[in-house]
Amino acid sequence: MAVSINEAVSTDPARDRTPPARRFGGRGLSVLEIAVLTVLAAVMLFPVLWMIETSIKENRDVYAIPAKFFDFQVTLDHFKDVFFSSGGGRSSLSVSFLNSVVVAGVSTVLATVLGVPAAWAYSRFAVKAKKDQLFFILSTRFMPPVVVVIPIFLMYRQLGLIDTKLGLILIYTAFNVPFTIWMMKGFVDEVPAEYEDAAMLDGYTRLQAFRRFTLPLLLPGIAATAVFALIFSWNEFVFAIFLTSSDSVRTAPPAIAGLIGGTTVDWGLVAAASVVFALPVLVFAYLVRKHLIAGVTLGAVRR
Amino acid sequence: MSDPVPLTTDHPGQVASATPPAPGWSRRLSDRWLTVAFISPALLLLLAMSVFPLLWALYLSFTDYSATRGGSAHFVWFENYTAILTSAQVHQRALTTLIYVVGAVTLQTVLGFTIAYLISRRTHGRGLLTTLFLIPMMLSPVVVGLFWRFMLDAQFGVINSMLGSLGLGQVEWLTRQQTALISLILVDTWQWTPFIMLIALAGLTAVPKYLYEAASIDRASEWFRFRTITLPLVWPLLLIAVLFRAIEAFRLFELVYILTSGGPGVSTETLSFHVYKVAFLGFNTGTASAYGILMVLIVIVLTQLYLRYLNKLKED
């Protein structure tokens, strides 16, 4: 039962060829199946397409009744508004995007630096109650953020970390470390320990063997893991909205959500900001599609 | 990543015995040191950022502390807990949460498995189809929530516009008590059906082809093959996906916050949303902590269940 998503998404026509006998008998069924798939695909994709369309529509077309699907005025004003404020200069949204880059980037680096060595140690050495420790680590990732944020809020208030990027970076690192350990342990398990043993027979220490032989083999795995951690931090909302308030610290998700706070909502701007926000995620997710199952189950399921 | 038999790991004892005994002893010592040095920073961070806050919440849950009132906290023992467990408000939120979790996860499972099954029967365009279907899952719940709020708007929303052009009546998706929870379930289903689909697809493609071939030699019907081969083999993996989604749905906050803010009335207030209101709008920090601890207990039970099944799956 060793199958990866690689195979699941491969388009190799040789696999799974339906037997010819059923082919002829089941032609009507097959057409029906394709029709159902097409409808479902349309339903799943329509909101995404509608978001992109709204982001390039003139305002009066955005609110048109009935909705305009094709004959609308194209404009890039909304995207301009995302990055530049009306008086020239940077908009607060663009500042929040920069904050997101900093917070997500730094927390991902920290989680990787802390998580990868730990994953290697869990994979290679006898650790007391290893299973319990690993389960405990994963459990911390399942805690409801709304609950955790209450004591974190009080703690940060004492430490002066409320409304600071450092505070967000710390909490994001803490929720990415369990993921990094679980995800990376799978990758380390796939690298034979014999490589290290052989290197140690050649006179390297254990640490040198890890750095010179195992680590290079882990790099693709580390990259994939880091990309997922980056996506999780980038998308995170609950901690961001409760632990930050000023424009100079706020990350993009609460900033975009803040766009609907007023009495009138500029949906064109919301759509454009959402597109700018979601595009890097989709690109990154596409890059790590091979590891998607492991990534979205926090490294728990991998095949 | 079609991994061969895991060559090693988890058996450091064996590894050590493969080398000469003399350097082995000093090496094991340094191994122990390495283990501590490599694992403890990560564990310390988790202790500081996850365990300590939860212990603090546990302490606060026995007090009448309020984050705004300040002053010292007085011990009230189990008053907060009894207040929550006997509160009709909380019971109602629990029911809402249950409807939401069961409704959303059931819909996602049925739809996700159907899509995966249909895709697994295609020979062409599988990769493209899978990739397209996965898009909603990768979006931030904030983006999803905002966008559906726009599309479900009663006046200029595109959904009502389409219903109108089909000659159907307008629906007040988010502003009526009866439909708001349904809308929430539908949006969550839209976002997370791909998750179930992805995992079901992995299970379906892992079913050995020779089983189907043997069955078709025996002239077994399509339904019989599905029921006796496909479902039993995919079910364990699907169960993991379902439990995972149930935990996530139980924790969900963003979507409610953005889509309906719990309204209209309290019709879409889930437990996560209610605990936020108690903590950050009511500032009853002690009560909110007790509330949170109870929720954590539920999550722990669900997580244990999840990990147990995961373990079982790995052992097979």
Can you put this structure into words, describing what you see?
The complex is a heterodimer of chains A (303) and B (316). Chain A is an all-alpha fold and 303 residues long. Chain A has 2 domains: 15-77, no CATH class; 92-296, Orthogonal Bundle (MetI-like fold). Chain A contains 15 helices and no strands. Chain A is globular, with a radius of gyration of 24 Å. Chain A starts with a helix and ends in a 7-residue tail after the last helix. Residues 1-25 of chain A have low confidence and may be disordered. Chain B is mainly alpha-helical and 316 residues long. Chain B folds into 2 domains: 14-49; 86-315, MetI-like fold (Orthogonal Bundle), CATH 1.10.3720.10. Helices cover 74% and strands 0% of the residues of chain B. Chain B is built from 13 helices and no strands. Chain B starts with 11 loop residues before the first helix and ends with a helix. Residues 1-22 of chain B have low confidence and may be disordered. Classes of the chains: A mainly alpha (303), B mainly alpha (316). At the A-B interface, helix 1, helix 3, helix 6, helix 7 and helix 8 of A face helix 1, helix 2, helix 4, helix 5 and helix 6 of B. Chain A: The chain crosses the membrane at residues 31-52, 97-122, 134-154, 166-184, 213-234, 267-288. Chain A: It is a multi-pass membrane protein.
